[in-house]
UniProtKB/TrEMBL annotation:
It comes from the Bacteria. InterPro entries: UDP_GlcNAc_Epimerase_2_dom (IPR003331), WecB-like (IPR029767). The lineage of its organism: Bacteria, Candidatus Eiseniibacteriota. Keywords: Isomerase. The keyword Metal-binding does not apply. Belongs to the UDP-N-acetylglucosamine 2-epimerase family. It comes from Eiseniibacteriota bacterium. The keyword Isomerase applies. CDD domains: GTB_UDP-GlcNAc_2-Epimerase. It is an enzyme of class 5 (isomerase). Residues 22-359 form the UDP-N-acetylglucosamine 2-epimerase domain. SUPFAM superfamilies: UDP-Glycosyltransferase/glycogen phosphorylase. The gene is wecB. This is UDP-N-acetylglucosamine 2-epimerase (Non-hydrolyzing). Its EC number is 5.1.3.14.
Amino acid sequence: MKVACVVGARPNFMKIAPIVDAMSRADNLDPFLIHTGQHYDEIMSKVFFEDLGMPRPDVYLGIGSDSHTRQTARIMTDFEKLMEEHKPDYVLVVGDVNSTLAASLVASKLRVRLGHVESGLRSHDRDMPEEINRLVTDAISDDLYTSCADAAPNLRKEGVPEEKIFFVGNVMIDSLVKHRERSRESSILEDLGVDSKGYALVTLHRPSNVDVPETFQGILEALGDLSQEKPVLFPIHPRTRKRIQEFGLESKLNQYPNLRLEEPKGYLDFLRLMDNAALVLTDSGGIQEETTFLSVPCLTLRLNTERPVTVDEGTNTLVGVDPEAIRSAGKKALTGDAKKGTIPELWDGKASERIVDILSRFA
Ligand code: UD1
């Protein structure tokens, strides 16, 4: 069975890598890797292929950045041509980015069987573009592979029949388990001159946080105050860097020498940084899960999460974006009073094998 595996943006790569790897060991599955080019900078894309030991994509569409509609439409147009040319038997999409949505719509219109990995996550916040992508992709998928126990109830509420839902576990944790040892060889702590547990790590890129000047400035001030406790490392997403320039926030950042803006990091360097952080502050979805697995305390700078298992069972706390709340939760965590957690069910490094076992049955 020829399986078109679709990736586009940074958080897709660590999800598809272990699936393609497991698929290449199955006798009856032929993976065909398509990169839409939604993310294209070397540090947002190529580095991840190298770090994760992924094969080069069979096809690179080179779509690039644009408005959501134009980006999605361009992926759809090019992906449809590709489907007609290569005629895959199955399309596998991961996560919740625009590439996930675009490829799903095309597969479903062409009546090619469609599987969605990381299905059933819901923030119940339609202001998030990813929530729309998740809802639509799940509604039109044939097979829904879920990563945690709270996903299936969301799908059932939306009327998804039981036989379409497969609780397989978390493929992103497969990558983490596989590469954790190797990440220990990264020299990133030495390069940045920080000690294990001697710093906080920050990522921010959600439009709701970085596209609104007052919100973004308030968060930066809170992070600046926290950097007086411990250095705060802030590898910066291209979208966030643009906003700093656009809103003239450089002078604000200069007030805090210990709030250190860094280039985005590759997979292995970032994994080592997370593993050794005293605290992680983020608005990313995936990092909430990775810190839970690593038992590193995480403060999520959002009002909601599509990954409640990381709060109920893991090390994650939702703090929102009020600067005072970030300051006080951050100080508490950095002074040793951090949340402990447990690892959710089936986050065991074997989710991809379970997916491939299921796919093999369809072949
Ligand atoms: C996308 C995903 C988001 C995911 C995030 C991870 C959607 C709707 N959003 O958001 O779910 O959490 O990726 O990073 O799919 N840019 C570059 N170089 C790149 C890519 C982007 O400079 O390689 C800049 C461009 O100015 C672009 C902006 O970043 O306009 C935003 O990129 P885009 O892919 O539209 O969304 P992200 O914010 O990255």
